[in-house]
Amino acid sequence: MEPRIGEVESNVTELLRLGEEAVAHGAKLLVFPELCSSGYVFQSKEEVAACAEDLSDSRTISTWAAFCRANNVWMVAGYPENSGGTYFNSSVLIGPEGVIGNYRKNHLWNNENKYFEPGDCNHPVFRTELGTIGMMVCYDGWFPEAVRSFAVQGADVLCVPTNWVPIPGQAPGEKAMATILCQASAHVNGLYIVAADRVGTERGQEFIGQSVITGYTGWHLAGPASPVHQEILYAEIKPGEARDSRQWNEFNDPLLNRRVETYTTHTPA
Amino acid sequence: MEPRIGEVESNVTELLRLGEEAVAHGAKLLVFPELCSSGYVFQSKEEVAACAEDLSDSRTISTWAAFCRANNVWMVAGYPENSGGTYFNSSVLIGPEGVIGNYRKNHLWNNENKYFEPGDCNHPVFRTELGTIGMMVCYDGWFPEAVRSFAVQGADVLCVPTNWVPIPGQAPGEKAMATILCQASAHVNGLYIVAADRVGTERGQEFIGQSVITGYTGWHLAGPASPVHQEILYAEIKPGEARDSRQWNEFNDPLLNRRVETYTTHTPA
Fold first, then answer.
1. B249 to chain A: which residues are within 8 Å by CB?
2. Cα(B40)–Cα(B255) distance, rounded to whole angstroms?
3. Is the ipTM of this complex over 0.85?
4. How far apart are CA A149 and CA B262, in angstroms?
5. Could you cite one Gene Ontology molecular function of this protein (chains A, B) (predicted)?
């Protein structure tokens, strides 16, 4: 997608148009980018407030829920959440019966720190008839600890609304580092990662597109998508296969082989 | 390298030959593969015992130390360690003054579990005049928690003696997953990763070569090396740059941005 900053109504309309197209092609679980209802490059808390919505009383989320109900599908999408005057960079999981779960971005990138609070819900997973689903947002993916948190709680599919920005040093012909992180995280955890990025340049900030659907072995099943144009990717997800795949041989399962007691998490004093 | 199973003396001789060549090209820190003195595919504990050496009384390590002293260089290499009849898949760091540090592989792969004990020294780092150095071995790299453990303790350079085996599902033209893991781990921790793999097929087990030297941004500085032939890679390491690189912007440093209290390490009961 290419959301426009502050234009919630037209962004939601465009999301539904893309959603209808995906459903027409058989999609059952649809993933949209980070802050896709609002755009990303806020310049004041007032701008955030004007776009942010309360999960339990949101016109945007009601519209999305109606879409899921009408089409018997599930979706994940990023939106700015207003929780009693505190703002979160959130992602919602909706199914045919309504809202299933909410996630608040745990690791804030750059100026987000001026407008949003870091997430306060840790790394929840949600059991659905499509499999067990976790959500994380953009910079969360730079923390393998976060992906592991979803995995050890049983996530089969990690949905990642994101707004990836360029990373210095990428040589021509190289894959974007963000997509390499998806590969590594999917592989070492044996789960699917569905990362939906935005495209376009907003108030001078470039976004890189290149959405990917990564299989539980770490190889991309679809994408990278276009770096500049809106594009829908499709892939078949088999949650049971992800779960069964982790027994790599008689001795090795990457979740069971962790030696948690040996890891150092804090810089020694 | 292509070590031969059980042929310690000729493996050590070949290592020194390669070492002399690297030194002649200006190398100061040399990294060799996992179990490079002994070969890898053991078929009994007796075979391990015949090759394993005590760190403090090892002909192999004395030979390597003499090489480092004579050439004023540092080296890391994998060897089977005999610690009072207990065997570890170990890696040693040696400098011009002698042995600096030892590491015992923490996550054992497949049949290694029959012959070796898991490491009991956690994730030590060693301060040297070349920078702060950590060592890990092969399957350890599948645990981002391990790389993070070295990083938070101040590692600038992570040396990885390894014996990578093929991973199913790799499409033609794709980089090996093991090298993708190096990229992701280097990038999210802002450190160098120097992974020295073996080549060849031993008792039916294929090894994939493709050694890489990965910079602190996550892009490869040298390699992947040949998948089938012995090959020496060279790159310039700037430990201070790795340390300074982590302040990505006013708000973000991937080591400081971790939210350790929010991560789940154990599968909920």
1. 110
2. 35
3. yes
4. 9
5. hydrolase activity, acting on carbon-nitrogen (but not peptide) bonds, in linear amides
